[in-house]
Specification:
With 324 residues, this protein is of the alpha/beta class. The chain has a single domain, classed as TIM Barrel. It is 40% helix and 18% strand. The chain contains 12 helices and 12 strands. Strands 1-4-5-8-9-10-11-12 form an 8-stranded parallel barrel, surrounded by 7 helices. Strands 6-7 form a two-stranded antiparallel ribbon. Strand 6 and strand 7 form a beta hairpin. Helix 4 packs parallel to helix 5. The protein is globular, with a radius of gyration of 20 Å. The model has no long low-confidence stretch (mean pLDDT 97). The chain binds ligand PBG. Ligand PBG binds next to helix 7.
Length: 324
Amino acid sequence: MFYPITRLRRLRLNQNIRDLIKETEITLNDLIYPMFIIPGKSKSEEIESMPGIFRHSIDNALKEISEIVELGIKAILLFGIPEKKDNIATGAYSKKGIIQNAVKSIKKEFKDLIVITDLCLCEYTDHGHCGVIHDGYVDNDETLELLSLTALSHAEAGADIIAPSDMMDGRVAKIREVLDDNEFLNIIIMSYSAKYASAFYGPFRDAAKSAPSFGDRKSYQMNPPNIREAIREIEQDIEEGADIIMVKPALCYLDVISAVREEFNHPLAAYSVSGEYSMVKAASKMGWIDEQKIVLEMLTSIKRAGADIIITYFAKQIAKSMSK
Ligand code: PBG
């Protein structure tokens, strides 16, 4: 049935009708707020390229967490920046490491908050790569050993979800094995399954001081032109026991999100990364865009593409706008 009998504009007549037929909605249940934790006391450093996002010492992080919990956010993703870095990422798996201490303090105060730990070595290595280096190459299997040690230390500290973001082959199986062997049967693995070697991580690397000191991450993170390979990565992670799968970045990879949604039934997360945040903030500062509307449109498109969960630095801002 076509015009004039069908008039699609009837369904756009006013806000209530538009809301009635709305197909996609962002809710607070969907959002994960990433946070950066640094050593020390009473410290909060705003990240220059990410206005509104801070590196907090644990005590100050607790204050921001209390604010976001009040706003209704239910999950955070933690990144740690250690006091010292070395070539075997000792800070990552030290029992008194920055993340281990942070998780303990946070879970003590906020029992129901879902605490997710990013599992990677790049914030802890002095060369900034995501694993152990031999002859300029990240050694996959040796890195797995350190990742599983790190995963165990996060579990012992009380993390609810462990999120490997290193892109080594076989890490999910290895982490599941070490968790199960130590009776952490209910700790969830949210795997950064299809993680691309993206220029959109630039501001994050400033934030975490984790830019590689030589070369790039292209021998472990995925090549942006590929989508079939993303399906293979995800197949592998699911086979190895991932509970939640992820596509990262989000905005330039909506086709990947959509293809993954079609292919798999696992809960799917999308990471709207630092560069996506910074671009919006910069354009907004120039007065060129309506920030709040752009943010909602971006996040809605990620959900419309098929993501169930969105990791975003805008989580707090969105939660605030919802509470108004
Ligand atoms: C650690 C990690 C990175 C991000 C999340 N985990 C950096 C990278 O891979 O270089 C990027 C997040 C963002 O840009 O917001 N490997």
